[in-house]
Design goal:
This protein is mostly helical. It has helices at about 5-25, 30-40, 45-65, 70-90, 95-120, 130-150, 150-160, 165-190, 195-220, 225-245.
């Protein structure tokens, strides 16, 4: 870990609060956390440092919403996500930080465009119910999470398009990310992204994640689905532009 000044610590702690908040509240805030981490740490280093803290938030999210998951949809996604993770691990070795950010930003913009177009269709005819779309979403999410911890917006848009209610969205997302982030750990260790210094930082930063998760549980009960969707899409768009620029 590089030496950090007071302002950088404030940015990182704010990002960790948003990580927890995104796990139990508004998922789109997780992309803001990723962008804040990238402002302070190099992209590749930030992905490995953030992963253990994402797992802390995932455990809290599963404990909070474990009964609301849509398991058939998750089972269809997992093989494709695993394929994307493997592809992402290969790419991490060959691309630089700038290329990685632009690629993920472009993927997010495509996903948003598809979702906005999909909203004009009847719910029973949603693209999210088609197996090829689930496969593409899974591969993109696996690739994005391995390269930049950026699968959140992709899966948020996919689950919104599937018409999941808020609790179903949160429960399905919780199990999805706990499983996939745990699956990523051996790859991240092999690539040198998770380090002893990063684990020390994770131990110091975990309380901020827990505080954000507690706040998210309180806030989510007061948000309707339309507002939830608009906030998620808006934050996803901001994250995509940030990655591209």
């Amino acid at each position: 870990m590089p030496s950090l000044d007071a302002a950088q610590w404030v940015i990182l702690l704010a990002a960790l609060f948003l990580v927890g908040f995104s796990k139990t509240g508004v998922s789109g805030t997780g992309t803001v956390a990723i962008a804040l981490f990238a402002l302070v740490l190099p992209t590749k280093e930030s992905t490995g440092t953030l992963l253990p803290l994402l797992l802390v938030g995932d455990v809290v999210a599963v404990a909070s919403y474990r009964r609301h998951a849509e398991w058939p949809r998750l089972v269809r996604l997992f093989p494709w996500v695993a394929l994307g993770v493997v592809a992402g691990a290969v790419v991490v070795r060959w691309v630089d930080d700038g290329q990685m950010r632009r690629l993920i930003g472009a993927i997010l913009l495509v996903i948003i465009a598809v979702h906005l177009w999909n909203r004009r269709r009847e719910p029973e005819d949603s693209l999210a119910h088609r197996r090829p779309v689930a496969a593409l979403a899974g591969v993109f999410a696996g690739f994005a999470t391995m390269t930049a911890n950026a699968a959140g917006p992709i899966m948020a848009v996919y689950f919104l398009a599937a018409g999941l209610p808020i609790l179903g969205f949160l429960g399905t997302s919780a199990w999805f990310f706990l499983t996939i982030n745990a699956f990523k750990v051996p790859f991240s260790v092999a690539l040198g992204l998770i380090t002893p210094a990063g684990l020390v930082f994770a131990a110091l930063g975990a309380p901020a994640v827990l505080a954000g998760a507690a706040t998210g549980r309180v806030v989510i009960g007061h948000i309707d689905r339309t507002l939830f969707e608009r906030i998620t899409l808006g934050l996803t768009l901001l994250a995509a532009v940030r990655l591209l620029l």
